């Protein structure tokens, strides 16, 4: 039996046009995650593995793979509320379960989709594929939609779509 390979990009996610670029999540951008697509409850991000992102066996560190899954699933959840270039309300990870199938090598691609959503939560799944198209990891995640974040001096309201608090 042959190993599963990466499925074609879902038809509801447009494959035309340039990549969207940075994620606007500082840590994700720092390690080099790139937002390729985000629309209609689906998202795709990539990361090109640099030496700093590898473990002692010279393959993707598990934390990099899990971060790629987390950020991609979060973008899928946020995409349901997008309006134009506004990426929708913030989300926080409530729960995530990851299964690793094989080491990640080369350019990693993660595709995620929303399985179900309520007014406050999104239930998602995502898969990471190596540059050779083989499935490396799969995760499910639950995300809560937020309008405010706890901060040391009380609640910090997140900016609305017009950029004002």
Describe this structure in words.
With 165 residues, the protein is mainly beta. It has a single domain, classed as Hotdog Thioesterase (Thiol Ester Dehydrase, Chain A), CATH 3.10.129.10. The chain has two helices and eight strands; from the N terminus they run αββαββββββ. The protein has helices at 26-30, 62-79; strands spanning 34-39, 42-48, 90-100, 107-117, 121-129, 135-146, 148-151, 154-157. A six-stranded antiparallel β-sheet has the order 1-2-4-5-6-3, with helices on one face. A two-stranded antiparallel ribbon has the order 7-8.
Order of helices and strands: HEEHEEEEEE
Strand order of the biggest β-sheet: 1-2-4-5-6-3
Contiguous runs where pLDDT drops below 50 for at least 5 residues: 1-18, 161-165
Per DSSP, the total helix count is 2
| Secondary-structure content class | mainly beta
Largest sheet: 6 strands, antiparallel
CATH superfamily grouping: Hotdog Thioesterase
Query: Mean of residue pLDDT?
Result: 84
- Compute the number of structural domains: 1
**Total strand segments:** 8
CATH topology term = Thiol Ester Dehydrase, Chain A
């Amino acid at each position: 039996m042959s190993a599963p390979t990466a499925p074609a990009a879902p038809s509801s996610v447009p494959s035309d046009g340039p990549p969207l670029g940075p994620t606007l999540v500082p840590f994700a951008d720092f390690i080099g995650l790139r937002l390729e697509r985000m629309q209609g409850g689906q998202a795709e991000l990539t990361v090109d593995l640099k030496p700093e992102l590898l473990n002692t066996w010279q393959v993707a560190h598990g934390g990099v793979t899990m971060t790629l899954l987390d950020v991609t699933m979060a973008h899928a959840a946020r995409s349901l509320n997008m309006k134009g270039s506004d990426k929708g309300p913030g989300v926080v990870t409530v729960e995530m379960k990851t299964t690793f199938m094989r080491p990640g090598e080369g350019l990693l691609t993660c595709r995620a989709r929303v399985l179900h959503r309520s007014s406050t939560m999104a239930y998602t799944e995502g898969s990471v594929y190596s540059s050779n198209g083989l499935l490396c990891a799969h995760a499910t995640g639950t995300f809560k939609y937020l309008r405010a974040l706890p901060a040391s001096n009380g609640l910090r309201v997140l900016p609305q779509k017009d950029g004002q608090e």
